[in-house]
Model the fold of this input.
Amino acid sequence: MDIKVSSILTIPLYISRVDNFEEINKALLPEIKKHREENKSLPMSNDKCWRGMRQYNSEKPLLESIDILCSRFHSDFMKDKKETDRRTVYWTNVNEKGGRNMFHHHAMGTNGQSTELSGVYYVQGKGTGKIIFRTHYHMENQISPYMPYSMSPSYEPNDGDILMFPSYLLHEIEPNPSEEQRITIAFNVSLFLGSEWAKKTIMNKVKDDNPKS
Ligand SMILES: [Fe+2]
Done:
């Protein structure tokens, strides 16, 4: 009897260490510090987490690294599709000791803009808590602990690490156990702005925000 086993509904997680991350961080850290001094945290952040959305003068090498990951994703999964656009938005999170980020996904992007890929760059990540990934099956305790893949996968970050995954993937960040701040730059990448899907997503968001219309 011939038996085939296929992995279905798999979710790709890209992990890399950014080249020359020490140099990049040397330029980013003073800009992040200035940003924090000049701005209160944005709303919708979590307890003990400062969040800001400013474009940094030293962003170029980081954006190039994100682009490399996106191109790899495109060549792995979407060779037959032509991107209509590739637009990256990013924001900064600074978590003090005990600061965490609750389970969430990025599927609706920022401002209702459709997004396909999301991720995080760890400016300062070593010893500051893991990122944990889950599915809805995990969230609703539908997986017997005896089944394969019943445990939520997690990743222990280091400084300079960059992770990228589909925007729909649920994830949370553990409370920071360290005296060091966890400093991350999170990002969303839209690959198909202007597509029918993007328009539909944005329109649905507007409809949700204004139920009478
Ligand atoms: Fe996130």
User: Anything to note?
Assistant: Residues 115 and 197 are 10 Å apart (CA to CA). Residues 208-213 have pLDDT under 50 and may be disordered.
